[in-house]
Amino acid sequence: MRFEEEIKQSSFKNSREKAIINVVFTGNWLRDRTDVVLKPYKINEQHYNLLRILRGRHPLTICPSEIKEVLINKRGDLTRLLDKLVAMGLVERDVNPDNRRMINLKISEKGIDFLAQLDPEMEKLSRTNNALTLEESEQLSNLLDKMRG
Fold it and tell me: Who's near 129: CB < 8 A, 6+ residues apart?
């Protein structure tokens, strides 16, 4: 269905306004579908993003400030998000031996296994909710980069 039909609005100030609203709408549309996949695992897209970041650094550790720099969704309380992942046994948190005020984080083996279980479902979600070809997906990504300047 066309974007205009989905939101029941056919006129916009200009094409730029329409594009921005469509990007926001589509981002929420994708997030809602992602939440459906993640809900049975008792995590949300922010938890998933944190786990992806930590897996990307594995076996090294990372501190919370480094995570904050690369989070996709910077809203939300990072400490609270990490507390849940630590309680689930998916993330390990230790005091940095060189600087006791600093915390070191790393994904646990359980976290790696957890993501390995999720990977096929997230890949299926990506294929199912994207009617674009790989070339079109690359073009869209380039256009979005250009949009942000």
Answer: 30, 33
Name the residue with tokens 């006791």: 100
Burial of 33 (0-12, 13-18, 19+ CB in 10 A): middle
User: How many percent of the chain have pLDDT more than 90?
Assistant: 66
Distances (CA, A) of 76 to 17, 50, 59, 80, 112: 27, 12, 26, 8, 23
Instruction: Give the Cα separation of 93 and 104 in Å (integer).
Output: 6
Q: CA torsion 50→80→40→107, rounded to 10°?
A: 40
Q: What is the DSSP letter of 2?
A: -
- State the Cα–Cα distance between residues 60 and 139, nearest whole angstrom: 33
Cβ–Cβ under 8 Å, residues 38 and 45:
yes
The full DSSP string for 89-103 is: TSEEEEE-SS-TT-E
pLDDT tens per residue across span 7-58: 889 899 999 999 999 999 999 999 999 999 999 999 999 999 999 999 999 9
